[in-house]
Design goal:
It is built from 43 helices and 22 strands. By secondary structure, the protein is an alpha/beta fold.
Amino acid sequence: PVNWVTPLFSIGNKRRLEEDDMYQVLPDDASQGLGEELQRHWDKEVRMAAKELRMPKLTKAIVRCYGKPYAVLGIFSFAVEVVKVIQPVFLGKLIQYFEKYDPNNMDALYEAFGYAAGVSLSTVALTVLQSLYFYHVLRTGMKIRVAMCHMIYKKALCLSSAAMGRTTTGQIVNLLSNDVNRFDEVTTNLHYLWIAPLQAVVVIILLWYEIGPSCLAGVAVLLFLMPLQTMFGKLFGSLRSKTAVLTDSRIRTMNEVVSGIRIIKMYAWEKPFSALVNEVRRKEISKIMSSSVLRGLNMASFFAASKIIVFITFAVYVLLGNTISASRVFVAVSLYGAIKLTVTLFFPLAIEKVFETIISIRRIKNFLLLDEIERPNMRFTLEEKKDASVEIKDLICYWDKVNILAGHISQLTCLPSHLPQSSLLSAILGELPHDKGVLRVKGQLTYASQQPWVFPGTIRSNILFGKELHPQKYEKVLRACALKRDMELLPDGDLTLIGDRGATLSGGQKARVNLARAVYQDADIYLLDDPLSAVDAEVGRHLFEQCICGILKNKPRILVTHQLQYLQAANQILVLKEGHVVARGTYSELQHSGVDFTSLLKRDEEEEPQTNNNHSVVKHAFSQNSISSHTSSMHSVKDGADQLPVVAEESRSEGNIGASLYFKYLNAGASILVMLGTVLLSCPLLWDEAWENRVMTDKSPSLCSGLTLASVIFGFARSLLMFNVLVKAAQSLHNRMFISLLRTPVRFFDINPIGRILNRFSKDIGQLDSMLPITFVDFSQLILQNIGVVAVAAAVMPWILIPVVPLLIIFLFLRRYFLQTSRDVKRLESTTRSPVFSHLSSSLQGLWTIRAFRAEERFQNTFDTYQDLHTESWFLFLVTSRWFALRLDGICAAFVTVTAFGCLFLRDGLEAGAVGLVLSYAVTLLGNFQWTIRQSAEMENMMTSVERVVEYTELESEAPWETQKHPPPEWPSQGLITFDRVSFSYSSDGPVVLKDMKAMFRPKEKVGIVGRTGAGKSSLVSALFRLAEPEGRIYIDGVLTSEIGLHDLRQKMSIIPQDPVLFTGTMRKNLDPFHQYTDEDLWNALQEVQLKSVVEELPNKMETVLAESGSNFSVGQRQLVCLARAVLRKNRIIIIDEATANVDPRTDELIQKTIRDKFRECTVLTIAHRLNTIIDSDRILVLGAGMIQEFDEPYVLLQNQESALYRTVQQMGKAEAASLLESAKQVNTDTASQPNLMSLV
């Protein structure tokens, strides 16, 4: 059935396989169909359970969906076992013919030919049946897994906010990477749960018939082993559930580390994070170690069982006064051999996997039962669309029982204020469940989030978001959102690929793409959550006039903003404070009512208020037909993309897996001495095989019992030692990979999507932890056994080597031929898994946007496409393995046939014992041989995981954290920063983003840095922190920064970053991961940033554990936490990177005030979009295209009408310009009145 793969092998042997070489997924295996079918059964089960008032059982749904076809496969596996039992009987009859050999008896000879035919036919039957059985069970396992993944992703898309708090990205990634794999493992062995006991009974009957009651002694041993192994199985299950929880938390931490790597590096926090991960990993490994010890005992007991059983059986047989004959021994040994695999290996394995699977199913079920978001009906008649509106009365909502707001809104509504506006939008979107009151939305919503979200793909696919491309409309939107110029600068225009989390775009560009996406949709109501905060004043004005009051002027818009200069354009203004509406009305009404918000507004009579007409008919409905945006993103990036870090193709090694890799792997777990010890312990296996021969010839039981005992003890010792070594290897490789990841430059994370990195930490490490050690140990034991078997057989009859040698050569050649292709398929299987994880993590980040746009179905389809790509490679791997097994088994069957008939043709002069030995060895050796070859191939394929992990342990690393040269302990005491001809680019072949820059920032000076998006403002910070090594020299207080260690440098500067990052953990850990400060220090810092009251309201105050990435704080509050970190560190140099972009003017003033008071003695560099935040700086640095355009005091620059700063200020409107000039003047007079400090420098 698998001959169609043969052409693939010839390709695989000529060159490396690519994704295009894989075959299309079979319609039966497509992710969507499978997932929907299982989902149907699950929904039905949930309904039934609700009726019967019980918990729904996922197992029931799976059984209903896949039970019947899987049960039918039991017949195959039953047939296989029957044949295995019949074969030894034929063999015994054949040997009996030689025992009673009589040259003249022709009837006996014909009968013997019949038995020989029986032996060879049963071998052929085994070949065919086994291949069919494995192919079908593995495919069933694959189907269940694919369907589960579909359901898990589907569920993730509709989790409610409360449920998101109860799960984490790490957990979902772990469900998709490790838990679902149990289905692949359990299906292979499940049938043995009923076959093994049945087979045991049949064998006992046959044995009784052969050697009488003494067979019971051997059976007793078997019966003793079965419950013991069942107990092991249960233990495995409980260990598995403990391990899974630890793995979840490790992957969650990893996810945060990778997402927040820039911050971690700038704060020099690598050490506490690596301690955190190592601690979790240590606990995880200790659980894995216990289960490996159990595994070792389990496998050793399997190898030892056969020895003990045969020994005991014949010891009893002889003691009962019988004489041993060759045919008896061989039949007994073969029958025990047939049952040995099923009863002592497959049966316990089945139990172990069943228990593990139950745990995994339970975890998946708990996830599938989390709360979903309630989606209101969104189909509207044209009438309703005409007067689209949002109506709110006495609305009370809780995130966690906090009152939020009340009021009625339509038209262009501006909401100046702090936390609750985002919550108001969440309520309108339906993300925030409302407790009381009325919330009616008439019309289709669209939404631009506060923290811009982009998904991996082209810029165009991000803006279209599944809509068709209408060129004129698209151009209009690009122009309105000020993206036209950016598109011209990018190498591929709007077809430029955006990396993971938009790594290739600047903050302002992301915000504008995010806005353009909302504008491009034909919706009735636009919810805009502060889209103007991340852009500079000029662009902000353009967006407001061209876009919000331009393209959208006839639609109701709800705009949350902190930029008060835009309020006059609003038809209605709501002022929210702590969840209540404090005031509402038009601009003029509010001015006259004298609410405190007017104190925030400069009275502005010069500009006449603009009026907007409110409603307009929306011509066409929101159509949900999605064009797959994937085709566009699949086109490769053209050359010459030198502007941006483009997402690199995932690296995939080629060729053989060399001995050096095996050495690296083993050496990670043990020293050379331990390895030698293992080899020595293995030697007894070689002469193990010799004793089976002695039993027949030597009648002394004492020698036999000595040999048996020794081999059992050595077996256990070796097994345990090897598992120990391999688990240690997994641990040390994980730690080395993690450390090397922390030490690699930031650029690595811009090029590699997060899914790719997590894939190595979840899936590949998972392989190293569980599957690889089993295969490795199994393989090493088999190899030794085979050598022993051949040695014994050759000692009895040297001519057996004649067929063995060519056979071995054929086997090895086949193995090489097979591995060329299958290794590539396995590597493809690993790389095609990454997009599945990347897609999941980017979807979880943009969940609100995806739902607001009703794009769930399209994202689900994309997920299915990725899943199908992975299935293609997985299915190919399954088929290639079957192809290989069939070829091996076929050769074996031929060999057995030749041997059986050969013995009959050469019947003169052969003694029965020799024939028996040769025949039974021909059968077992071949079974063993091909199993060994198969395991070695399997092992080599698993070693690709080791290869991928080792690859990440050897990443290029940034400069050392500490060097021989330490700066003086008090450094920097003044905070003088000098840039001397500094050029900077993010990678050796990347574009230069700072060009030959010379500047000096004086001690205690406050410098504002402005410039258009992409002028190099953030690059200046990167150069200062050495996120990549700059050319030229940067001095801080006369110390050359490139000569000292990175930690020495980074710990001495504080940064308040553009995207505030909080980590899961307690509030205390977020402020002070090193435990360097007292409680009092921490509370004081919080007090200074006015967060003390917020933290005091938390249930456990400082010890409250934050939700994943701090999502239970608003963006503004997270920014304040970052400010508190800077306050705590008391450094001389503070860098503020657009930190106040997301906060309202009050908080902004507060931050500015804190900066003036707390950081009076520090040198402060502020990168800003809002000029009012930096107009009172001592000097302003204007950047353009990586060069300094001007650098002087603000008042001086504003006097000069040619200056860039002057032009920018004029664009803000007359009133704003006047007030800015006033502030600048103020600063100027203040400085003049003070004694001249500047002369000191």
